[in-house]
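Recap quiz, item 2
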Amino acid sequence: MIKVDKVSKYFQKRDGTDFAALSNVEFPIRDGEFLSILGPSGCGKTTLLKIIEGLVKPSEGAILINDQPVKGPGPDRAMVFQTFVLLPWADVIGNIAFGLELRGVGRKAAREVASTQLEKVGLTGFEHHYPHELSGGMQQRVGLARALAVNPEILLMDEPFGALDAQTRQLMQEDLLNIWQEEQKTVVFVTHSMDEAVYLSDRVVIMDTHPGRVEEIVDVPMPRPRDPDVRRTPEFSELTSHMWDKLRDILKRDQATAAAEAAKKGA
Amino acid sequence: MMSLAVGFALWEAAGQLEVSRALPPFTAVVEAIFDVWGREQFQDAMLSSLKSVAIGFPLAVAGGLILGLLMGRFRVIEWMFEIYVNVFLSMPLVALVPVIVLIFGIDRSSIIAVILIYTFFVVVVNTFTAVRAVDPTLVEMGRAFGANEFQRLTRIVLPAALPLTLVGIRIAAGRAIKGVIIAEQIIGLVGLGGLVQRYGGAFLVEDLYAVILFIGLVGMLSMESVRVGEARLLPWLKAQELSAT
């Protein structure tokens, strides 16, 4: 089990004062669950994901995985990035095998694993294509395959479909759920789309902004496997509406605080 | 090709019209090429210049790659060397040649030293820029997948920096030719530059042009061969540029 244990993160602003990106964020993540972190831009959700991944150290608090604090990136976690971040000089198979090869897996064995993952994400036939020859959706499939190839327990996804068009995005969501259904991994998924969060998740952590805090954790009790048509049910609408209400309040509060601070500075 | 043909035609016309005593007709120069390029004097000079470049250029590239990489990776080293690199890049190096000749004497070591100052700093600045320009999210991705410092350098930074670094080497190839000829001209006795001085001084105009054309050809070929190397090593880059249109 993973615990986000009272995590705070401060950055220094240009004028020397501290800026709190995250403040006392605390929530558990159950094994095998699909958890989304939903919040407006700037609420620190990407920072939180990087702290879980181990790329960023928290200023206070820790991430506990089975009661052990996270000290850095590890073999139990793998990340999928919003901008794909593929190696432009390597072909699809080379990219998928990258994480394995870094771990010392021999080239032949790594390519075999990569082949399997390539099929799983539906890229058969594209083994020797280069990233620039692929569409955004296909590039992200490579990113997903690369993360799955190292067989992590936890998949960390940072707005992975944010750079894709709406149709591709929906298809990718459905494909992701199919893969997740088979793989049984824990997924922490950052998004700013309520529809996406509700469709994909078991639970949604709604985050407040400036600083980033947990506003509410919402259960999504809809049955699995999730039919794509679940998006049209009244239950779905209720959940997304509730989330939108929360987000709108968060945004309005944030605007008011920003206006007040600007007025103070002006006066 | 077309452009060259037109150029040669104009040259021929200007020569026949005797626009200047220093501008012989193109056909006269072509005759001289067959004469001069076969001479032992020319071939000895060519080999001499080639030898200097063969020593100086690889040395400069190797040194430039190392310093460029170190400067790109370590801020301290950047701060230490930045000013010298900028000075040598912005000043007219030809002014330093007499100083170099005074220090190293009238022999090949001067010529090699000149080649070095012409090429070294160009490689440094291009390599340094290339390393600095590497997308930090690529390196971050490497960290996320557990790459250690050495792996990040060799499997991400180096390949990512290769395109710009090769551009630096391509430019340096052209400058190496420039350096060797300038040094030889100032020293006067050896190599192709020496021939330029000799034929120019004796007003053997057609022979002079024959040598100059050869130098131009070599300069072009050396840069082209680096460009071919670029295409071989970076197949993904050309295609990427094409698909971006």
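The longest helix of chain A spans residues 234-266.
Chain A has a mean pLDDT of 92.
End of item.
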